[in-house]
Amino acid sequence: MTETFDLARARVAAILNLKSGRGNGDGLGQQLQDRLAPRCASFRAVRVEKGQDLIRLATDLNTDHDLIIAAGGDGTQAAVAQALADAELPAVMGVIPGGTFNYFARDLNVGETPDEAIETLLNARVERVSVGDMNGKVFLNNISLGAYPEILERRENFYKRWGRRRVLAYWATLRSLMDLRHPLLLTATVDGEERRFRTALAFVAQSETQLESFGLEAADEVRRDRLPLFIAKAERALPLVGAALRLALGRMSRGEDFELIVSDHFIIDTDRPTRHVAHDGERSRVPAPLKLSIRKDALRVLVPARAANPAAEGDPA
């Protein structure tokens, strides 16, 4: 069921965190002032300072705003989503892409550029969206253990030296895989049954766009609010590099390259009390075990007024 959103009556706040991604925060701020602000009851733009707590910022803004726009990469979107999903009376969320891959914005079909996303905000409807949950932490795209957190660390080092370019993300991936030394010992508990694995990489997906972009199955499971867990068969560097190349070519396959487990919720434990975990492009150390589930319809998000598939909204074909 479609929920309407009256922008003319809305108190709007925009969190701008584009300095390290695509685009320019000052330029976007001016665009929003020119194009969006005149259409709102009130408008405020907040530029994120280095080291600022985005979750706290969004939580504070939620108290007296009807719409909070997250302009930035997937990490920014996840922080705002966390604040709103945890709020007792959450505002509606708007999304403006400004990162490297922007999977959440692409999942929502709001547009792949800030200009397109502003057009969406000007003519939008509200859609309820489910999010992933790891020990109370919201994730929008994926949770990864093993090699991927190390990839993120190396990628950020490359970005600091040469700027944020997508090719550097792929180069960081290859270099990190070549340096891989030790497999991950992992126990997955699904429906009360324990399964043990030795693997170089495990990840839980939440973004159908990300899965489809790599030719991986289970996008339909994500649409049904189920979590797919991918566990790489490779334990060492060279086999994982081969799997990564097949992934880049869209030729990665279950059985040969990975094992797939799908469930509404599961528990992942490891051979260490804490692990570096990658979540929506960020990296942090998290205590084990990881309890993963879906927060169904946790967010109200602005999406294009007309659905990408008109038949899905009951329009004539």
UniProtKB/TrEMBL annotation:
SMART domains membership: DAGKc
PROSITE patterns per UniProt: DAGK
Presence of the UniProt keyword DNA damage in the record: no
Domain of life: Bacteria
This protein's record includes keyword Transport: no
Keywords (A to Z) from UniProt: Kinase, Transferase
PANTHER family: SPHINGOSINE KINASE, SPHINGOSINE KINASE RELATED PROTEIN
Protein name per its UniProtKB record: Diacylglycerol kinase family enzyme
The species this protein was found in: Paracoccus isoporae
